């Protein structure tokens, strides 16, 4: 049996991890409680800025005055400020935080699931199914209730569930459930579904409709409403709690199947749980925000540089970091250009690609 690194074995057994190997910071030198508190304060400031900044600026004091007035049961105040702050910007800022937190958590879990630090939530093909469902809703009229009475978000979630079932069936064929089989099934089915999506996009004859389809495929938080917050917020919270409860098992899984089994982990059952949680959570997130790339890939890497690889620390830190990142990205999307709004996926790609290249270069330097 392969000998596991002592720090990872200690983490899997619930002990304090030993000093990290050369090139990594010792996770013990980072007070995680203080880090989480700092991230929470940063998130609160980012949310305030997201509500304050825009085409019509609102002072920070007025933002909090309006929010506290509404939270204490006050009636809408006359004028446009209540509409801008409470009805438009607060739901959007909160949705950005929820989606960012969810992508950070899912990215961390997927990388443990397939034991690949370059994996992201879209590797399993679930987002491709959600994209196909949403595009079909827009092109075929489901967004107005014509197809099965589904809206765009509902059709996206249905597409995610169908692609999840298809990937699951292929990955389980023959009784095996290995990371390689899962990745190959997800990539193959994802590309297959992307072909249908491209075909539907080509069928769009209306220029405005085409722009709406492409904008959704690149990610958008513009449709945020109070009614759209409950489902993703509940899904992210439950997903985080479920994964946090299995944090030690996730630590063991990274050491390899034999070592994890030797530590008492049912590897096959754990992979099934991870696949179900990450697939459903990805489907929920894509259904409300479109396809937002790089967040689930970039955030876990950045957080590992600070807190190490112990999932008991990594999961909550990734959630808060992802929330802060996407709130800031959404501010940039709304304010970078004076007369138009950038898709969220465009900005995350601009940020994520250089970060990914830096991380790859860092890994190559350490491997020499």
TrEMBL record:
Molecular function terms from GO: transmembrane transporter activity
Top-level taxonomic group: Bacteria
TM regions (residue ranges): 32-54, 93-114, 121-142, 148-170, 182-202, 214-243, 276-302, 343-360
Chain segments carrying region Disordered: 1-24
One GO term of the biological process aspect: siderophore-iron import into cell
Coiled coil: none
CDD domains: TM_ABC_iron-siderophores_like
Keywords noted in UniProt: Cell membrane, Membrane, Transmembrane, Transmembrane helix, Transport
One GO cellular component term noted in the UniProt record for this chain: plasma membrane
Record membrane topology: Multi-pass membrane protein
Record localization: Cell membrane
InterPro entries reported in the protein's UniProt record: ABC_BtuC-like, ABC_transptr_permease_BtuC
Stated family: Belongs to the binding-protein-dependent transport system permease family. FecCD subfamily.
Name of this chain's protein: Iron ABC transporter permease
